[in-house]
Amino acid sequence: MEEKEAAPVAELKEIDAFLKGLLKPEAFRDYGPNGLQVEGRPEVRRIVSGVTASREFIDAGIAAGADLLFVHHGLFWRGQDGRLTGWLGERVRRLMKHDLSLVAYHLPLDAHAEFGNNAQLGLRLGLVADARFGEQDIGFIGPAAGIADAAALAARVEQALARTPLLLPGDG
Q: What is the pTM of this model?
């Protein structure tokens, strides 16, 4: 019988330090805490990423054998009741029961010029940003690259993402 090779191991604290250095959360005034939100086991063999720390996503991470969940929208937001009751308590209990860590980065991920969701969407659409905008420089702007109108943009989005975007009529 062949022995299965063990998955490489990384330390949670090293991953956390790497992400802080890469995404620089201290540079943003955000709606919630960026970085490690729930600490699980200290060793990480498998990371699962998604958009939101929903119950469905947490369960999918558990089923996939994750040690660490990496999300854009974490569990904690400014102005919310911080008590661990209801949906929040349920999700935190699920993470803790499975010794599963949760890392969330919101605006720092929006703003990252290489790995951020805005930069990656532009890349998939064949667009190149030449400037940033917005209160915290989270937006990117550049030439339209052959996109004449909203219908042409919608067609490009559909082709690049294999899904039909919802195109709403404008004012003009």
A: 0.85
